[in-house]
Every structure is written in C-alpha cells, then in structure tokens.
C-alpha cells in the first residue's frame, strides 16, 4: 500500500511539474509573442489611422482653401459689375446729383446684380459706395450712423492710390455699429471708382464685405462635422475661431501651428 501511495504521489508530482513546464512554454512561445504582436499591430494601426486622418484633414483644408480663393475671386468679379456700370459712374461724377435718386439707383443696381448672381457669397455681401462728398449708399440700414471713418482706414486709403486696384482687409473686427457682440470678423475689399473705369478722376469708393456668418460658411464647407477651425497669423495667434467642442487654448494652437509649419518645411 505504501508503495502504491508513493507511486501515486510521484505521478501527481510529475504531472504538476509537467503542467508548470507546459504553462511556461505557452507563456514563452505563445502568450508573449501574441502580446508583442498585439502591441505592434496596435501601434501600426494607430499610425495608419493617424496618417489617414491627417491626410483627410489636409485634403479638407486644401479644398477649403480652394473654396475660399474661389469665393474671394467672385467678390472681386462682382466689384467689376458695380464700378463698370455707366449709370452709377454718371451719378457719382455729378456733384449736383440728388442723394435720394442716387440711393434709389444704387438699390436697384445692387438688387439686379445680386439676383443675376446666384452665388451665396455675393448674395450675402454688404456693399457700401461713397461719393466724393462722402455721401454713403449701402444695401444695409445705416440707422443714422456715420460710417465715413471707413475712408480713413489704411486698406481703403491704399486702394485710393493704386489706380483702382483691389485692396483686401482680412478678418478685421466688424465695422458695423450696434450689431453683433463685438467679436465678429469681416473680410472686405476696397477699390476706388474712376470716371472712366480705369482712368480719369476718382469719383467714389466701393467697399464690399462679408460678415462672420458668410466667413464661417466658407471655412466649414469641406470640414468634418465636429471640427474646430481656427484662422491664425504667422506666429500662431488666433484671428478667428469656430469652436464646436471643448475650448482650445492659445498655447495649444501655437503648438499645433508649429508642428504644421515643420511638416510643410520638410515636405
């Protein structure tokens, strides 16, 4: 009986040792390689997903850039429709013309040219025309406010000495009075109006602007649903932000901007 019991204990001990060896072998040759492989695959997948996402974002940015350029070109072309109008130039060049009838004509001109142009960016444009007496004609209510200060803005003055060339003002604070929360931004163009379109004396100034709502539409046309969009100047400072999610701090934007700039230089 003792011999049988000893044999059983030895048999049990052998299988215990064998089980440990098998478990050890499984850990070394199966579990550990699988763990390493899982980590490797996860990193590779993360890299692929990140790369695909980056490519998608860059692609969307490029499409938005193209859309913005196209929209601004449409505003520039639309300005030609206005300053080439002979009736407008005749009225602006006559200092004795009636402001009331001038205003009626400008209203009709803007309405007809905007109806002819189905593009949304032109339909949303705010138009201001000054004559040489600083009388102002617009397609938005003045509410008895004085906007002659616009003629002293640098970008407006620059257009007055550049023979009718367009001068742009990008993402500047809104000049509209009693409107918005003070944080709205405008994109505006200015060009002088001449008696003979490209020659002759200066008879007025044209200003065309789009407000933050129109700018937002431009910036988000090809973005993804929950994207946060920021417009920055060269050092990464934010000019305008369209945030849909959690607020992003200025220092985070600067880090992202520096990384983006580095990748552009490398490419």
Describe the 3D structure.
The longest helix has 82 residues. The chain has a five-stranded antiparallel beta sheet, sandwiched between helices. It is 54% helix and 16% strand. The protein is α+β, with helices and mostly antiparallel strands and 267 residues long. The radius of gyration is 34 Å and the shape is elongated.
Order of helices and strands: HHHHEEHEEEHEEH
Strand ordering within the main sheet = 2-1-5-4-3
The coarse overall form would be: elongated
Helix content: 40-55%
Low-confidence stretches: none
State the end-to-end CA separation: 84 Å
Number of helices: 7
Largest sheet composition: 5 strands, antiparallel
**What percent strand?**
15-25%
Q: Quick check: average pLDDT?
A: 75
The total beta strand count reads: 7
Which structural class fits the helix and strand makeup?
A: alpha+beta
Cα radius of gyration in angstroms? 34 Å
Keywords:
267 residues, alpha+beta, 5-stranded antiparallel β-sheet, two-stranded antiparallel sheet, 7 strands, 54% helix, elongated
SSE topology sketch:
Layout: H1 2-83, H2 86-93, H3 99-116, H4 120-123, E1 126-131, E2 136-138, H5 154-160, E3 167-173, E4 185-194, E5 202-210, H6 212-220, E6 229-232, E7 238-242, H7 250-266
Antiparallel strand pairs: 1-2, 1-5, 3-4, 4-5, 6-7
Helix pairs in contact: 2-3
């Amino acid at each position: 009986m003792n011999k049988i019991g000893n044999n059983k204990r030895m048999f049990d001990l052998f299988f215990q040792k064998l089980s440990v060896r098998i478990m050890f072998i499984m850990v070394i040759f199966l579990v550990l390689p699988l763990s390493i492989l899982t980590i490797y695959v996860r990193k590779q997948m993360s890299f692929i997903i990140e790369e695909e996402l980056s490519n998608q974002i860059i692609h969307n940015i490029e499409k938005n850039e193209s859309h913005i350029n196209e929209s601004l070109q449409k505003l520039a072309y639309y300005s030609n429709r206005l300053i080439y109008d002979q009736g407008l130039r005749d009225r602006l060049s006559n200092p004795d013309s009636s402001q009331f009838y001038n205003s009626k004509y400008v209203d009709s001109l803007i309405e007809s040219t905007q109806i002819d142009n189905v593009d949304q960016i032109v339909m949303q444009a705010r138009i201001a025309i000054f004559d040489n007496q600083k009388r102002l004609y617009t397609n938005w209510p003045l509410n008895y406010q004085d906007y002659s200060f616009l003629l002293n803005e640098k970008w407006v003055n620059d257009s007055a000495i550049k023979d009718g060339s367009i001068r742009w003002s990008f993402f500047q604070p809104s000049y509209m009075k009693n409107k918005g929360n003070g944080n709205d931004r405008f994109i505006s163009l200015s060009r002088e109006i001449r008696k003979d379109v490209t020659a002759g004396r200066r008879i007025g100034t044209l200003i065309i602007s789009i407000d933050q709502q129109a700018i937002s539409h431009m910036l988000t046309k090809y973005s993804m649903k929950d994207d946060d969009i920021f417009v920055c100047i060269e050092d990464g400072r934010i000019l305008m932000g369209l945030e849909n999610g959690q607020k992003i701090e200025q220092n985070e934007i600067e880090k992202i901007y520096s990384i983006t700039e580095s990748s552009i230089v490398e490419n």
